[in-house]
Protein: ABC transporter
Amino acid sequence: MSTVISIENLQNAYNDGQLVLKGINLEVQAGEIVGYIGPNGAGKSTTIKILLGMIPSFTGEVRVLGQDIRTEALEIKKQVGYVPENAALYEVLTPVEYLTFIGRLYSMSDAVIQRKAEDLLHLVGLSNHINSRMNTFSKGMRQKVLLISGLIHNPEIIFLDEPLSGLDANAVILVKEILAQLKTAGKTIFYSSHIMDVVEKISDRIVIINQGQVIANGSFEELKAQAHSGSLERIFQGLTGDDTTQSKASEFLQALQ
Ligand SMILES: Nc1ncnc2c1ncn2[C@@H]1O[C@H](COP(=O)(O)OP(=O)(O)OP(=O)(O)O)[C@@H](O)[C@H]1O
Structure:
């Protein structure tokens, strides 16, 4: 197995100077599906954006496909894909126009882009909308276009940040199967989500971060054994939450009155 992502003592602060990543250490092997989870604000998207070369201000060492993200970001970007949640799509474009724009960034020929775009849009059920402007699209329809745009250049590593957002149950099943088959094809998948049962099922390894630090790292079976707990939701709650959910909910209702 070869290491395709290596993160050493990664720290990052935004403009206010507060550390949001406080020394992350992590390695990902080729062909792994890693579920990267944590509470809101834990630092998941920040980590992914650093791995994509979108945030240069970090300290520590970050290597992707053996190359330093600080100096080789452009080279790395050619080989990785990114499926964000709710990114700003150019809504006045049609999906084919948008995918053409993305494909050209990866130096793909228009003929190849057109073929892939039509095939992929058809496969996610958007055949009847390929020439409609995306400002008429539902949330799930946009998410399907984002999914295709992150994969169209057939990247080696795929970063997904809450990729199932807004997708219907059938589309979720399709995406899970696509991820499983991408793994079989040797791709590496770095997957961030709050949907615990999906993370539990698809991940070879689960990394939990809390307040900018890794607090658990292992297969679901390993985490389950350590936590003496049956589901990832429970393990997550045990490590990052508290047992005041019921009283918080009643206080919330009282505050509404
Ligand atoms: N552009 C920014 N400027 C300032 N602070 C930011 C910025 N982006 C994120 N943060 C802060 O960094 C911290 C981590 O945010 P991040 O988006 O990485 O969390 P996350 O784990 O992805 O959360 P979520 O589950 O809510 O998506 C939060 O405290 C957030 O307020």
